[in-house]
Amino acid sequence: MRRFVSLPFKIMSLIMAFLLIASISMTALWINKTDQDYLYQQQLLREQDKKQFQLIQDLLRNRIESWFESFVHFQDDNPDSLNAIAAFLRHEFEYLNINWQINNLWLIDNNSTTLFSTSDDTPQFVKEHANDVLQQQSSLSVVRCLEECQQFISMPILIDNDRVIVLTISSSLMEVLAALNQTTLADLAIVGISQQEIINKKVTDLIVKPPISTSNRQFMQDQLQQVPSHLLVSSLLATGYRLTATQSDLLLNLIPIDLTTDEAIYLLTVHDISNVSNAHRAYRTNVIGISIFVVILCAIAIWLLTRQFRQRLMAITKMLPLLADKNYREFRQHKRTDQQYFLDEIDILQDTTCLLGDELEELDKKIEKSTKELETIALYDRLTGFPNRNMLNHEIKKRLSDLSHTLGRLVLLFLDFDKFRKVNDSYGHSIGDEFLIQGANHIQQCLQDNEQLFSLGGDEFIIIFHESEQGNRAQELPKKLIQHFHDPIVVGERQFYSSCSIGVTCTDTGLISVDEFIRQADIAMKASKDAGSNKITIFNSNMLNDVMRHAEIEIALRHALHNDELSFALQPQIDINTHKLIGFEALIRWIHPQKGRIAPDEFIPVIENSESMINLGYWGLRRAFVILEKLDLIGMPGLKVAVNLSASQFLDPLLIPFLKEQLVVYSRDASQIELELTEQTVVADVKQTIDTMHQLRALGFTFSIDDFGTGYSSLSYLRQMPVEYIKIDRSFVSTMQEDNAEMKIVSSIIAMVGNLGMQVIAEGIETQAQLGMLSTMRCNIGQGYFISKPIDEIELYSLLPNKVENGIWLTPSN
């Protein structure tokens, strides 16, 4: 048998040679790329100097052109007259000379005649520029260096409505150089050299020209003397030059300024690039060091690792064919049992191979069993054992197809248990699952042979059956189911009295889609829930319109919150005995930009159980803090604002952190915010409601129960709640004068609430007589149209000073 041994030494040598060559090549490429980047940065710096110099020249030219055009053409007297322009320039010249560094001005016509000048003569090149401007009908800017370097700007000016002349301005170049120095941080100097045989001129022949300070002149002259004597001006102009001095690296660059005279004039820029050069050298050193270290390290690693990798790989190659043959017994014999402290890719591969073998063996055992289970899972609900949505879709599609050649109609019932969530939350999911199993069995007991029950998951069930044209099963079965659930569902030793909401739809044609058919029943079921649960609703087309309307309102309300279309109307609450203003109840108002006012009764029920209701509630709470802040500003501190909270918002876990944050943001006493709850909110989840109320009461917030007497409040719960106010519903107050029984109810509520240590707020006070009766009954606080209608927030702050005197609210009776 042929024996496998370690790699020969010559193979190791080839690997090492390849590694060394690769390392040297990559290092060379790396250093070359670094050098190119370094040179490219210098080229960018040189290009930046040129662009900045040109940009600053253009900015100065545009500024001067704009100034002259605006002041020349907008004079009061004959702005387009030559004499007026000349007079204006003569009058403003001293100002321009001092503030704009304007040296001379010339007005030249199309015959090259100087019409106005601030100098003794007009240079020939100025006239030539004027001719160019007249031909091109656009401004021209050049730099000329005679005795000193100046920027000459020539611009066309229309006079006498049809005549064009040229205004030429000469300004000092110092402002341009100062701006260039600030933007590039380079040392600058104007240098010159004779134009004769300039191609052979050397950089050391450049002469620093004024204006320049003595110290800066000496610095520039020293730098020019340090460059190599053979460096030509043309080379410096084309590529710049990096000057390596004793303690610094400098980048020299030449920018042409004026090449039209006997002496060529350039702008010399000197950048200190010492930091960049030092970083570049350090980087090159690091690259070489890293390359050497990597070569040595790789050599050592290769030497250590290649001794055993072949043997380990061969062991794996023997194991893999065993997996292909499903020879798991022999495969397990080849497993490695020793543990490695340092794992590499081969170790991971070997471990993965072993793990793969175990998984494949286990998978083979499960495949047969899982295949049957998958068929069941795909078509049946795992909890109840009844057919699931997949089977439902298949069955509906089949039955809809049969309708084309069968008389009668296909009926679909959508059933959902009412308040099933409370079973899960109160007793746990295991009890909830058993409840669903028993509930499904209860439904099945009501069905006939041709009626099929399907489980959609959770507490939703669907029943489908075919009914003849004269049949009445579509009406009888829902009633039977409602009646059947009057009996309790028994889970272990517990009995659950539940109810269900049912939606019914039917079709006598196969043209409807499966999804639409189920959706119709779903819409009808939800309508049953909205009607108070334990109801039966038959689908009609108006329901679809209602769904669309609800969706539109939800979308519009989200836009309303974003676009500030919502506001409050505030109804005053007064002390019935003293008429002192206590505070306000905040009532929501929505003014739609197209539809106008939308009543709360129209949109609140739509969003009551949605996220929009929670967002609206937080908007209202934040708005109440803002209102209290504005009341302080108009001199009415200490009032309170009552804000209604829905059940979904009050049970939201973010409510308490939100209110804590608002107290900090507005630095407000929490007792000025009254949280108004309905009896339905209280009984939604009594335990959590009481716990939340105590936490908020500890922060200082007060509570009131709205519409007391119309709901299902329990006095035992009421005693546990930290409630300060009980509101008597307006239906009792409005009829207590005519109905003695209603008056006794109101009197009893006031007495009972007073004995519990709470105060009573009477709503709907509309007459002086009602106010008097409530005062006699010792009712504490009142509100209603007799006191005041709700006042829009935008009008409240201007109206209050006329309605409140020494804290007393002025009513018709006082």
What labels describe this entry?
814 residues; alpha+beta; eight-stranded mixed barrel; five-stranded antiparallel beta sheet; 27 helices; 21% strand; disordered N terminus
Task: Explain what this protein looks like in three dimensions.
Strands 18-19-21-22-23-24-25-26 form an eight-stranded mixed β-barrel, surrounded by four helices. The protein contains 27 helices and 29 strands. By secondary structure, the protein is α+β, with helices and mostly antiparallel strands. Residues 1-8 have low confidence and may be disordered. The longest helix has 65 residues, at 9-73.
Instruction: Describe the main β-sheet briefly.
Output: 8 strands, mixed, barrel
Kindly report the average pLDDT value. Answer: 83
**What is the strand content?**
15-25%
Low-confidence stretches: 1-8
Number of strands: 29
Rg from Cα: 47 Å
Strand order of the largest sheet: 18-19-21-22-23-24-25-26
Structural class: alpha+beta
Helix residue percentage: 40-55%
Number of helices: 27
Q: What is the CA–CA distance across the termini?
A: 121 Å
Shape: extended
How are the elements arranged and paired?
Layout (H helix, E strand, L loop, with lengths): L8 H65 L8 H18 L2 E7 L5 E4 L6 H13 L3 E6 L3 E11 L3 E10 L1 H11 L2 E8 L12 E3 L4 H13 L6 H7 L1 E4 L4 E10 L4 E10 L1 H32 L3 H16 L3 H6 L11 H35 L9 H14 L6 E9 L2 H8 L1 H17 L6 E4 L4 E8 L5 H12 L4 E3 L2 E3 L3 E8 L6 H17 L5 E3 L2 H23 L2 E10 L5 E12 L3 E3 L1 H8 L3 H23 L6 E5 L2 H4 L4 H12 L6 E6 H6 L1 H14 L2 E7 L6 H6 L4 E4 L1 H6 L4 H16 L3 E4 L5 H9 L4 E2 L8 E2 H11 E2 L2 E2 L5
Parallel strand pairs: 16-17, 19-21, 21-22, 22-23, 23-24, 24-25, 25-26
Antiparallel strand pairs: 1-2, 1-5, 3-4, 4-5, 6-7, 6-10, 8-9, 9-10, 11-13, 11-16, 12-13, 14-15, 18-19, 18-26, 18-27, 19-20, 28-29
Helix pairs in contact: 1-4, 1-7, 8-10, 12-13, 16-18, 18-20
